[in-house]
Amino acid sequence: MPIRVLLVDDQPLLRTGFRMILEAEHDVAVVGEAGDGVQALEQVRALQPDVVLMDIRMPRMDGVEATRQITGPAKDGPVKVLVLTTFDLDEYVVEALRAGASGFLLKDAPAAELVQAIRVVAAGEAMLAPSVTRRLLDMYAEKLPSGESPVPDALSTLTEREVEVLKLVARGLSNAEIAADLFVSETTVKTHVGHVLTKLGLRDRVQAAVYAYESGLVRPGL
Prior knowledge:
Pfam families: GerE (PF00196), Response_reg (PF00072). The protein is α/β, with parallel strands linked by helices.
Protein backbone atom coordinates (compact mmCIF):
# COMPACT_ATOMS: atom_id res chain seq x y z
CA MET A 1 0.00 0.00 0.00
CA PRO A 2 1.36 3.46 -0.84
CA ILE A 3 2.13 5.97 1.90
CA ARG A 4 -0.81 8.39 2.12
CA VAL A 5 0.43 11.99 2.39
CA LEU A 6 -1.42 15.21 3.20
CA LEU A 7 0.29 18.44 2.06
CA VAL A 8 -0.19 21.46 4.33
CA ASP A 9 1.24 24.79 3.21
CA ASP A 10 -0.25 28.24 2.64
CA GLN A 11 1.61 28.60 -0.67
CA PRO A 12 -0.19 26.76 -3.53
CA LEU A 13 2.91 26.72 -5.73
CA LEU A 14 4.90 24.91 -3.07
CA ARG A 15 2.14 22.35 -2.60
CA THR A 16 2.11 21.76 -6.36
CA GLY A 17 5.86 21.25 -6.35
CA PHE A 18 5.71 18.80 -3.47
CA ARG A 19 2.85 16.93 -5.14
CA MET A 20 4.81 16.55 -8.39
CA ILE A 21 7.83 15.18 -6.53
CA LEU A 22 5.88 12.74 -4.38
CA GLU A 23 3.50 11.47 -7.05
CA ALA A 24 6.48 10.41 -9.14
CA GLU A 25 7.18 7.76 -6.50
CA HIS A 26 5.44 4.38 -6.75
CA ASP A 27 5.07 4.03 -2.99
CA VAL A 28 3.68 7.50 -2.17
CA ALA A 29 0.19 8.90 -2.82
CA VAL A 30 -0.82 12.50 -2.12
CA VAL A 31 -4.38 12.23 -0.81
CA GLY A 32 -5.11 15.89 -0.16
CA GLU A 33 -3.94 19.45 0.46
CA ALA A 34 -4.62 22.17 3.01
CA GLY A 35 -3.72 25.85 3.15
CA ASP A 36 -3.70 26.31 6.93
CA GLY A 37 -3.89 24.44 10.21
CA VAL A 38 -7.67 24.48 10.45
CA GLN A 39 -8.03 22.88 7.03
CA ALA A 40 -5.31 20.41 7.97
CA LEU A 41 -7.32 19.15 10.95
CA GLU A 42 -10.41 18.75 8.77
CA GLN A 43 -8.45 16.86 6.11
CA VAL A 44 -6.77 14.59 8.62
CA ARG A 45 -10.15 13.55 10.01
CA ALA A 46 -11.62 13.04 6.53
CA LEU A 47 -8.68 11.40 4.77
CA GLN A 48 -6.72 9.62 7.52
CA PRO A 49 -3.28 10.12 5.94
CA ASP A 50 -0.18 8.29 7.12
CA VAL A 51 2.03 11.38 7.02
CA VAL A 52 1.24 15.10 7.16
CA LEU A 53 3.82 17.37 5.53
CA MET A 54 3.24 20.42 7.72
CA ASP A 55 4.31 24.03 7.18
CA ILE A 56 4.91 26.01 10.38
CA ARG A 57 3.92 29.58 9.56
CA MET A 58 0.33 29.71 8.27
CA PRO A 59 -2.79 31.85 8.80
CA ARG A 60 -5.67 30.95 11.17
CA MET A 61 -3.79 28.11 12.85
CA ASP A 62 -0.03 27.60 12.62
CA GLY A 63 1.71 24.30 12.13
CA VAL A 64 2.71 23.94 15.78
CA GLU A 65 -0.86 24.03 17.09
CA ALA A 66 -2.09 21.85 14.23
CA THR A 67 0.63 19.32 15.01
CA ARG A 68 -0.31 19.37 18.70
CA GLN A 69 -3.94 18.62 17.87
CA ILE A 70 -3.09 15.92 15.32
CA THR A 71 -0.38 14.02 17.11
CA GLY A 72 0.22 15.48 20.56
CA PRO A 73 0.91 13.53 23.77
CA ALA A 74 -2.77 12.69 24.22
CA LYS A 75 -3.06 11.21 20.72
CA ASP A 76 -2.42 7.55 19.99
CA GLY A 77 -3.35 7.58 16.30
CA PRO A 78 -1.03 6.48 13.52
CA VAL A 79 -0.76 9.88 11.79
CA LYS A 80 2.80 11.22 11.69
CA VAL A 81 3.77 14.84 11.16
CA LEU A 82 6.85 15.98 9.28
CA VAL A 83 7.33 19.72 9.78
CA LEU A 84 8.53 21.97 6.96
CA THR A 85 10.53 25.10 7.69
CA THR A 86 12.09 27.79 5.52
CA PHE A 87 14.91 28.44 7.93
CA ASP A 88 17.52 26.03 9.24
CA LEU A 89 16.84 27.14 12.82
CA ASP A 90 13.24 28.24 12.78
CA GLU A 91 12.23 29.48 16.23
CA TYR A 92 9.18 27.22 16.19
CA VAL A 93 10.88 23.95 15.32
CA VAL A 94 11.55 22.91 18.92
CA GLU A 95 7.94 23.71 19.82
CA ALA A 96 6.75 21.56 16.91
CA LEU A 97 8.87 18.66 18.12
CA ARG A 98 7.47 19.06 21.62
CA ALA A 99 4.00 19.11 20.12
CA GLY A 100 4.52 15.66 18.64
CA ALA A 101 6.16 16.09 15.24
CA SER A 102 8.37 13.23 14.12
CA GLY A 103 10.97 15.58 12.71
CA PHE A 104 11.56 18.52 10.43
CA LEU A 105 12.76 19.18 6.92
CA LEU A 106 13.94 22.33 5.15
CA LYS A 107 11.76 23.49 2.27
CA ASP A 108 14.79 23.72 0.00
CA ALA A 109 15.85 20.14 0.68
CA PRO A 110 16.59 18.01 -2.42
CA ALA A 111 13.66 16.03 -3.83
CA ALA A 112 15.30 12.72 -2.88
CA GLU A 113 15.62 13.90 0.72
CA LEU A 114 11.94 14.85 0.85
CA VAL A 115 10.90 11.42 -0.43
CA GLN A 116 13.21 9.65 1.99
CA ALA A 117 11.89 11.74 4.87
CA ILE A 118 8.33 10.70 4.05
CA ARG A 119 9.34 7.03 4.02
CA VAL A 120 11.28 7.25 7.27
CA VAL A 121 8.50 9.01 9.17
CA ALA A 122 5.85 6.66 7.77
CA ALA A 123 7.89 3.74 9.10
CA GLY A 124 7.64 5.20 12.59
CA GLU A 125 11.15 6.61 12.81
CA ALA A 126 12.25 10.18 13.50
CA MET A 127 13.39 12.24 10.53
CA LEU A 128 15.82 14.43 12.39
CA ALA A 129 19.49 13.62 12.68
CA PRO A 130 20.57 13.31 16.33
CA SER A 131 23.23 15.97 15.73
CA VAL A 132 20.55 18.35 14.48
CA THR A 133 18.41 17.58 17.52
CA ARG A 134 21.22 18.65 19.79
CA ARG A 135 22.02 21.74 17.71
CA LEU A 136 18.42 22.88 17.91
CA LEU A 137 18.24 22.32 21.64
CA ASP A 138 21.53 24.12 22.20
CA MET A 139 20.30 27.05 20.11
CA TYR A 140 17.16 27.36 22.21
CA ALA A 141 18.72 26.53 25.55
CA GLU A 142 17.05 29.54 27.17
CA LYS A 143 13.67 27.86 26.64
CA LEU A 144 14.73 24.79 28.57
CA PRO A 145 14.93 24.27 32.36
CA SER A 146 18.11 25.30 34.14
CA GLY A 147 18.66 21.79 35.44
CA GLU A 148 18.11 22.89 39.02
CA SER A 149 14.56 21.52 39.14
CA PRO A 150 13.96 18.01 40.55
CA VAL A 151 14.48 15.09 38.20
CA PRO A 152 11.11 13.67 37.08
CA ASP A 153 9.96 10.54 38.89
CA ALA A 154 9.54 8.79 35.54
CA LEU A 155 13.32 8.60 35.17
CA SER A 156 13.44 6.31 38.19
CA THR A 157 11.67 3.65 36.12
CA LEU A 158 14.69 3.38 33.84
CA THR A 159 17.57 1.03 34.47
CA GLU A 160 21.09 2.43 34.79
CA ARG A 161 21.90 1.30 31.25
CA GLU A 162 18.69 2.82 29.86
CA VAL A 163 19.62 6.16 31.44
CA GLU A 164 23.04 5.91 29.78
CA VAL A 165 21.40 5.25 26.42
CA LEU A 166 18.99 8.18 26.87
CA LYS A 167 21.87 10.54 27.61
CA LEU A 168 23.73 9.41 24.49
CA VAL A 169 20.62 9.77 22.33
CA ALA A 170 20.23 13.33 23.61
CA ARG A 171 23.87 14.10 22.90
CA GLY A 172 23.41 13.28 19.24
CA LEU A 173 24.78 9.75 18.90
CA SER A 174 23.32 7.29 16.41
CA ASN A 175 22.50 3.71 17.42
CA ALA A 176 25.78 2.53 15.88
CA GLU A 177 27.76 5.13 17.82
CA ILE A 178 25.96 4.29 21.06
CA ALA A 179 26.69 0.60 20.49
CA ALA A 180 30.39 1.35 20.03
CA ASP A 181 30.48 3.59 23.08
CA LEU A 182 28.81 1.02 25.34
CA PHE A 183 30.45 -2.04 23.73
CA VAL A 184 27.12 -3.68 22.88
CA SER A 185 25.32 -4.57 19.65
CA GLU A 186 23.08 -2.19 17.70
CA THR A 187 20.20 -4.60 18.33
CA THR A 188 20.75 -4.21 22.07
CA VAL A 189 20.77 -0.43 21.71
CA LYS A 190 17.51 -0.51 19.74
CA THR A 191 15.98 -2.61 22.52
CA HIS A 192 17.10 -0.13 25.17
CA VAL A 193 15.78 2.82 23.16
CA GLY A 194 12.45 1.02 22.78
CA HIS A 195 12.25 0.46 26.54
CA VAL A 196 13.05 4.12 27.21
CA LEU A 197 10.31 5.31 24.86
CA THR A 198 7.76 2.93 26.35
CA LYS A 199 8.55 3.73 29.98
CA LEU A 200 8.55 7.49 29.45
CA GLY A 201 5.54 7.49 27.14
CA LEU A 202 7.45 9.07 24.25
CA ARG A 203 6.84 8.68 20.51
CA ASP A 204 10.39 8.56 19.15
CA ARG A 205 14.05 9.41 19.80
CA VAL A 206 13.45 13.08 18.94
CA GLN A 207 11.04 13.43 21.86
CA ALA A 208 13.44 11.36 23.97
CA ALA A 209 16.19 13.91 23.30
CA VAL A 210 13.86 16.79 24.14
CA TYR A 211 12.79 15.00 27.34
CA ALA A 212 16.40 14.46 28.42
CA TYR A 213 17.11 18.18 28.10
CA GLU A 214 13.85 19.32 29.65
CA SER A 215 14.24 16.99 32.62
CA GLY A 216 17.75 18.27 33.34
CA LEU A 217 19.32 14.87 32.66
CA VAL A 218 21.41 16.49 29.95
CA ARG A 219 22.44 20.16 29.92
CA PRO A 220 22.66 22.14 26.66
CA GLY A 221 26.20 22.70 25.46
CA LEU A 222 27.71 20.08 27.77
